[in-house]
Amino acid sequence: MCVHCAPPCVPGHHGDGSLYSVRVSPAPRAVADIGSNSARLLVVRATDQGHLDVLADARVALRLMRDLDANSRLTTAAVQRTVQTLSAFTTIARRHGARAVNVVATSAVRDAVNREAFIAEVQRRTGLVVVVLSGEDEARLALVGAVSGLPVESGAVVDLGGGSMEVAAFERRRFRAGITVPLGALRLGDAFLRHDPPRPSEVAALRDHVRSTLGAVAITDLTVAESLVGTGGTIRALAKAARGRGQVAVSRLHGYNLRRRDVAALVDALVRLPAARRATVPGISSTRAESVLGGALVVEVLMDLAAAESILVSGYGVRQGVVIEQLDLQAARPRQLRDASVSAVLSRLRSGSAGSPRRRLLVASLAATLAPRLDSELLDMTGHAARLVDAGARLDHYGRWSESANLAISADLDGFTHAELCTISAVLLRAGEAAVPPAVRRESRVPRASVEAAAVLLALADDIDRRLPPSQSGTVGGLGRDGRLDIAGMPPMLLPGALSERCRAALHRDIRELSDVRNTRARTPRPEVAVEFK
Description:
Elements: E1 29-34, E2 39-46, E3 52-60, H1 76-95, E4 101-105, H2 107-111, H3 115-126, E5 130-132, H4 135-148, E6 155-160, E7 165-171, E8 174-181, H5 185-192, H6 200-214, E9 227-231, H7 233-243, E10 257-259, H8 260-270, H9 275-278, H10 292-306, E11 310-313, H11 318-326, H12 334-350, H13 357-370, H14 376-395, H15 400-410, H16 418-431, H17 438-444, H18 448-467, E12 476-479, E13 484-487, E14 493-494, H19 497-507, E15 513-515
Parallel strand pairs: 1-4, 4-5, 6-9, 9-11, 13-15
Antiparallel strand pairs: 1-2, 2-3, 6-7, 7-8, 10-11, 12-13, 14-15
Helix pairs in contact: 1-3, 4-11, 5-10, 6-10, 7-10, 8-10, 12-14, 13-14, 13-18, 14-15, 14-16, 14-18, 15-16, 16-17, 16-18, 18-19
């Protein structure tokens, strides 16, 4: 099923679950997700490379799951709160340029026996069409959204909501199959945890229920090579709380590895607290305090059954999945994701500029000549760092290295792990000869000597890029015994002494002069002064 919206919209879901590429619409898109615990709005604009630039992101704690009466009917109060929420969402969406709000509803509305009457009344009062997702459609859209911004190839996505949990398998970033199970955080908390704080017998009963329900689910068959991706408010709340237990380098949750031992420690802490005090745990909001324990227990059992040491947290889900399918965006590979997200940051800060592509090319060429054994993944991250320098310079010319390093760990850069973002940040800081914070160095896990070598290559590439005439490609030749580094089109220039010394220390190369050695006229007379950039 394709989620429908106000025209124009081209269905983008094939029977085999694939996504295909068409021209991207520049108009902002707005999606509202009416969940069992929360209602969420997302307004985005797709870039020409398929990156979704967020214009607005809002949430209301609706608690529709609790509005289902004994006969599984949504109450009049539920209609009233939903109408008010959607009216506010429409105002926000229009403020950010969206012409329509595409509304989807999940577990609580799906389970209601009066869902048709509920939908009709909401539409009558708001003018918005509400599409109720089947469990499989919800699982598929959650997967499409969650995987879209992560460097993963195969595995499973778990979307834990207030009323249900969706599990979807994927191969080569494509949806394979999906199911829904009634294991929502709010649903289970209300059903099993009757006392505050809960009794041990209630916690044990909830765990047993989750274990028996998940017993036949394919997620228990994950192999070591597959990824377990988690999305949904509860999983993100647990990730926030786990991050609050120690120093972290990357500010965003997207791409964070939530470890099983951290989930176990959080469960142990939360189970001892009454609901009112759970909000005192860093990362747990007051609107999430009541439901978080039920969800944490689900996650704990799920990770045990899957033998998963960690869950890769995605900040994206159903709403992003709706936009991606509506725009028929291709399921981009991780490298494409990275390039597109860096381009989006540069575009926001430099009015459409893609940054200096020559600096990135120079990094690769210099590495081939001066550091051929540099790790290929580190070289790739250094290339992304080379592009971000322009963004940092836009914020502060003199602090460009530190500003771009901060962007690496704070901007919405998709397709990178937290370790990779920390590596980019570390390389940028060292390129500017600034100290690398312990949290960044610890999460990067790249040896200091390797970071230093990459940083010096970047500093050298930046120096060359700023000297070289715009019309020149800057092809790097060999390094002569006389300390001349052959750069095509480069007028003879001495390398500043400090940078020359850094090349000797980190790269074990004696570089004293930049020159186009094939141009005999440019080689004489040899330069006697060194220009140093600030």
